[in-house]
Amino acid sequence: MKEPVIVRVPGDKSISHRALLLASLARGESRIRGVLTGADVQSTAAALRKLGCDIPALERDAELCFRGLGLRGWRAPQDTIDCGNSGTTTRLLLGVLAAHPFRTVLTGDSSLRSRPMRRVTDPLGAAGARFEELGEPDRLPIAVTGGNLQPIRHDAPKASAQVKSALLLAGLNAGVQVQLSEPRLSRDHTERMLRAMHVSVVSLTASDGTARVSLTPGTEPAALDVTVPGDFSSAAFLLALGLAGSRPLTVQGVGLNPTRTGFLAVVRRMGGDVRIDALREEGGEPVGDVTAWPSELRGTTIAEDEIPSLIDEVPILAVLGTQVDGEIVVQGAAELRVKESDRLAVMANSLRALGCDAEEFADGIAVRGGLPVRAGRVQVHGDHRIAMAFGVLRALSGADITLDDPAVAAISFPGFWSDLRRLGEAR
Ligand code: S3P
User: Residue 138's pLDDT is what?
Assistant: First the structure.
């Protein structure tokens, strides 16, 4: 077997959003290395600039230094804030703005304007913030007017890091206690970063999987000094290529937070040979090098309780389904219908149009391997992860698959297409 090809992926999207946003809430000067320069994080940076924060241009591989405005230090923006395609930008901003005593209008692109917002505005409204839905119910554009919030208690019906983070940031800014639960622990980057900034956040996961987190206000967050690890969700596209292709590859410096790495457990169950080296901790997050070796893959069933840990990896797992002996079945994943696109429908329809055996059901998808992939054109519905998933399918199958909007990959993974070409040439 040849030596693994070495690659790196851009900075983690979730951590990059949080680093910018939380640094804007500290008073001192923060230092952030490895920030993602993709379109979603640019949306967060642009929004923070409109709210009075002096954030320099984002550049890959440069250290970003800026002073925050302190808690409740954001200033009323001159005009509407456009969150672009980014759900994380929108929902986290809504949380912080719920504690700021002025009116802000948030909107986004057509995909973001079709995504539900009451999951955040309902609990924030119950705590005392005011929301006006300026278009359709439960959708952007929304005006938020912050206020003096009551302590926040919320039992979230679904695991969602965006909801959890919005409520934690609202409580932090308002100076009120926050007590939350969710049925499974969603990604916990906010909690880890707040702790690194000396904010009191306590988390506990019960034996039935229910996760609780509480924040006690009273400490000004300390400035941040952080290196953003590579994005595991971006790495997953390349690891899939390593596992189902003919050449091993190593992705170096990837974030391995256990709330994010369900994909590794699933591919191992499928017979995939993935190994982790150089495991270390950076800025409160586990980081390592992940090598994927070409493997004979068999099918598996992914159950509801695994979904939060691989929520963004379902499109690439569906693509892997075309390469397995048997089938991959994903259950309990109805949340996929309200992501950047309806990922269950788009994946199943597009795979079928390419001759693959895929079936969509209300809360999941099944993809069976063994059929040849045909040439065809895929509409990616403006969804970066759909575009990248079909890019990997093209690389694996050699089928002439074209996409209506390949450039959308830059939302989370600038350089994806050149990396994929390089890896293709390396085999
Ligand atoms: C994210 C949380 C997840 C994930 C999204 C990023 C975050 O969404 O799908 O890509 O950074 O908090 P939910 O919180 O809606 O599950």
Answer: 98
